[in-house]
């Protein structure tokens, strides 16, 4: 199977799959694409399908996990560990015991007392990167920067 990628500067991103015959391998790829990008969420207004690029961060409040978007908060049936693992490829990072942040929504980073960091998101909210995660956060950002420079 041949895999080709092309970086674009305009227009909508797309994934195109061309095949002669639907094989189990292609079915697994399709299942992965569809399942890994949708996150079921709910709030008082109903059930929703959320996508990683909509989510600013996940937050644990008591024993519930919420996905926070620009418009609203949605309860999800994931743990923070699941959000961290499943969405790492989309730029999500565990920044404290209670938060997993989408690094693509961060507009500024500021060092704080006690080896912590304050990050400001493009919706003007602030989150704290706890000292336990600061070193890993810097490495994660470095990796994200290198991936962007390499067109990944």
Task: Explain how this protein is built.
It is a single chain. With 152 residues, the chain is α+β, with helices and mostly antiparallel strands. The protein contains three helices and ten strands, in the order H-E-E-E-E-E-H-E-E-E-E-E-H. The chain has helices spanning 24-37, 80-87, 131-149, and strands at residues 39-43, 46-50, 55-61, 64-69, 73-76, 92-94, 99-102, 106-112, 116-121, 126-129. It has a seven-stranded antiparallel beta sheet, sandwiched between helices. A three-stranded antiparallel beta sheet has the order 8-9-10. It is globular. The model has no long low-confidence stretch (mean pLDDT 87).
Please give the structural blueprint.
Elements: H1 24-37, E1 39-43, E2 46-50, E3 55-61, E4 64-69, E5 73-76, H2 80-87, E6 92-94, E7 99-102, E8 106-112, E9 116-121, E10 126-129, H3 131-149
Antiparallel strand pairs: 1-2, 1-5, 3-4, 3-7, 4-5, 6-7, 8-9, 9-10
Offer a concise description of the structure.
It contains three helices and ten strands.
Helix content percent band: 25-40%
Quaternary form: single chain
Order of helices and strands: HEEEEEHEEEEEH
Question: Number of helix segments?
Answer: 3
Mean pLDDT: 87
Strand order of the largest sheet: 2-1-5-4-3-7-6
Kindly report how far apart the N and C termini lie: 20 Å
Radius of gyration: 17 Å
Describe this protein with a few key phrases.
152 residues, alpha+beta, 7-stranded antiparallel beta sheet, globular
């Amino acid at each position: 199977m041949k895999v080709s990628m092309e970086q674009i500067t305009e227009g909508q991103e797309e994934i195109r799959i061309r095949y002669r015959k639907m094989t189990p391998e292609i079915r697994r790829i399709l299942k992965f694409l569809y399942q890994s990008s949708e996150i079921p969420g709910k709030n008082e207004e109903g059930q929703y399908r959320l996508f990683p690029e909509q989510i600013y961060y996940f937050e644990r409040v008591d024993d519930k996990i919420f996905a926070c978007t620009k418009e609203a908060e949605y309860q999800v049936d994931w743990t923070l560990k699941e959000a961290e693992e499943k969405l790492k490829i989309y730029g999500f990072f565990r920044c404290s015991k209670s938060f997993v942040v989408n690094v693509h929504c961060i507009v500024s980073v500021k060092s704080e007392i006690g080896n912590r960091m304050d990050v400001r998101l493009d919706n003007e909210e602030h989150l704290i990167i706890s000292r336990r995660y600061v070193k890993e956060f810097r490495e994660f950002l470095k990796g994200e920067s290198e991936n962007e420079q390499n067109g990944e």
